[in-house]
Amino acid sequence: MRARAYKGLLAAVTAVSAMGLPIVSATAARAEPDPAAFSRTVKAPSVKRHLEKLQQIATANGGIRASGTPGHEASVAYVAGKLRAAGYNVTLQEFEFPFFRVLGKPVLNRVAPDAKTYVSNTDFRPMTYSGSGNVTAAVQAVDLTLPPSPTPSSTSGCEASDFAGFTPGNIALLQRGTCNFQIKAELAEAAGASGVIIFNEGQPGEGPNDRRVLLGGTLNEPTTHIPVVGTTFAAGEELSAAGTKVTLTVNAESDLHRKTRNVLAESRWGDPDKVVMLGGHLDSVTEGPGINDNGSGSAGVLETALKANSLPTRNKLRFAFWGAEELNLLGSQHYVANLSAAEKAKIKLYLNFDMIASPNYVFGIYDGDDSDHTGAPAGPPGSDKIEKLFESYFKAVGQPYKGTDFTGRSDYGPFIAAGIPAGGLFTGAEGVKTPEEAATFGGEAGVAYDKCYHQACDTIANINDKALAVNTGAIATAAFVYAYSPTLPGGASAPGSTQPGTGGGGLGHDHDHGGVQK
Questions:
Q1: The pLDDT of residue 256
Q2: Which terminus of the chain, N or C, has less C-beta within 10 A?
Q3: What is the CB-side half-sphere exposure of residue 478 using CA atoms within 13 A?
Q4: Are the beta carbons of 363 and 426 closer than 8 angstroms?
């Protein structure tokens, strides 16, 4: 596998040169390292050792590495320590964020007209920034559209008038659609609701377009003081029956002023006006250790950085390990928002690696040119060239690949919004692998790409070693090519779309604790 990868790196570099991204030759005045030699130093077993360390950190800290918790601080210390030891200039960029986690096991049980227990993370889950409470009360439907309309159109709970006649103390049953969840929850609380259940709207679809599956989302900030949960469409439809009474329990911790940090590392070499940036988020969700999501991407970027530290590159390399991504990309948003116009102009491209070793993987490349004609539009000019670079790598190593949409739900989003070319890799999350994908990539059709996505079982055992090795080679290739290329994708460009796409490719990557708001 490794010998094939060395040849693949050489072939990929040659292909990139043929695409108009010339690489400095070994006979030029500025000699470059041999690309195959560099590839040999970035080894998947070394990446796996970083993952094992992140697992140890999670195990020692309550099984999680979420921003604002000791597990994330220990992860930051580990990554920063490795980078400093390798000679990087490391910055820990601190920022405040509204912290949230669920303590203990949430409960949703029907007690009338007959008893039924709903399963947490299967039938329901607390929404991010839910309030706390333990209530048993009647369920009162609010402006529901049942059966659902053919296309999303529900306005349930979006206006104060929807709650006319609402009985204070009841639990409000609302339907997804039109306005964000925060508006629905705040209006319900203002009407006297003791709790809120928001169920998915009901339209069938693929991946994140399926409005029947378990609804997770965020209230954006902790402005609601009652328990708020999301459910599947089936659970919501059941709870809409007359005479329904439930027990709803959520014990949540919120802190408007919790602090966390991004880890930023800058190489000693290269033109500071031509920055090549690679990154991934370091935090997990509060439900598990996050070893695939996103220990895998972080570890791949980290090992590439450690082995690139001594390269006398033409361009400046900058590596980022984001905090609070799982709470709506807060770390990368903070970073980009605090760049001056001049600093933004220096960043010629951003490469994002979020979940690169899913157990039932596909090899997804972000669709920079919208050639798949689905979901979000093309990225800023230059994103197409990044996509072609990764395509050339996968062709060279003899591995299949497919496009995956820029949904706006990972850390490339703020860079695209700022007009910076972006690209990267993704092996799939909660989306379900199709029979066609199983025929192409192997694995199991009808099963999620990562069935442990955002769960306690996202441990070191959840890593696919082949996907990790192949994608590690792709990260090393991209870092090497762009570190030495005199022509980079980025330049002055207009901001890209900030609207989420429709999840092209069906890979799913719906960071339920941040991205879904309506």
A1: 87
A2: N
A3: 31
A4: no
* 244-265 pLDDT tens trace: 999 999 999 989 899 999 999 9
* DSSP E strand boundaries for 114-157: 116-118, 124-126, 133-141
Which bin fits 483, alpha (ψ -120 to 50), beta or left (φ > 0)?
A: alpha
What is each CA distance from 488 to 363, 386, 494, in whole angstroms? 24, 10, 17
Cβ neighbours of residue 187 under 8 Å, at least 6 residues apart? Answer: 157, 158, 159, 160, 162, 163
- Going by pLDDT thresholds of 50, 70 and 90, the confidence category of residue 514 is very low
Alpha carbon distance 411, 514 (integer Å) = 12
From residue 485, alpha-carbon distances to 17, 25, 30, 165 in Å are: 9, 10, 12, 66
CA angle, 492 then 495 then 485, to 5°: 40
> What is the per-residue DSSP string for 60-85?
HTTT---TTSHHHHHHHHHHHHHHHH
Q: What are phi and psi of 461, to 5 degrees?
A: -70, -10
Q: Is 150 helix (H, G, I), strand (E, B) or coil?
A: coil
Q: Which helix (H) or strand (E) holds 58?
A: helix 44-60
Residue with tokens 């069906």: 506
> Is the pLDDT reported for residue 238 higher than 50?
yes
**22-36, 59-73, 211-225, 351-365: range with lowest mean pLDDT:** 22-36
Cα dihedral: 466, 470, 473, 475 (round 10): -110
Q: Given a cut of 70, is residue 405 above it in pLDDT?
A: yes
Per-position DSSP letters for 340-381, written without gaps between them: -HHHHHHEEEEEEE-----TT---EEE-TT-TT--SS---ST
User: Among 184-198, 375-389, 419-433, which stretch is predicted with the lowest mean pLDDT?
Assistant: 375-389
467-476 average pLDDT score? 96
Give the three-class secondary structure for 107: strand
Quick check: 510 pLDDT over 50?
A: no
Residue 294 three-state SS: helix
The alpha-helical segments, DSSP class H, found in 240-349 are: 297-308, 330-337, 341-346
Looking at residue 488, its pLDDT comes to: 95
Q: Is the peptide bond before 113 cis (omega within 30 degrees of 0)?
A: yes
Helix (H, G, I), strand (E, B) or coil at 268: coil
Q: Around 293, how many Cα atoms within 13 Å sit in the side-chain half-sphere?
A: 33
CA 92, distance to chain mean position in Å, is: 21
Q: How far apart are CA 440 and CA 242, in angstroms?
A: 48
Cα Rg of the chain (Å, integer): 23
Chain centroid to Cα 487, Å, comes to 29
Provide the 10 A C-beta neighbour count for residue 161.
8
According to the model, what pLDDT value does residue 371 have? 77
Identify the pLDDT of residue 499: 33
Asked if 294 and 365 count as a contact pair (C-beta separation under 8 A), the reply is no
* Contact between 214 and 201 (Cβ < 8 Å): no
Q: Is the pTM of this model over 0.90?
A: no
Looking at every residue in the chain, the average pLDDT score rounds to: 89
Q: Which of 201, 266, 303, 325 is catalytic?
A: 325
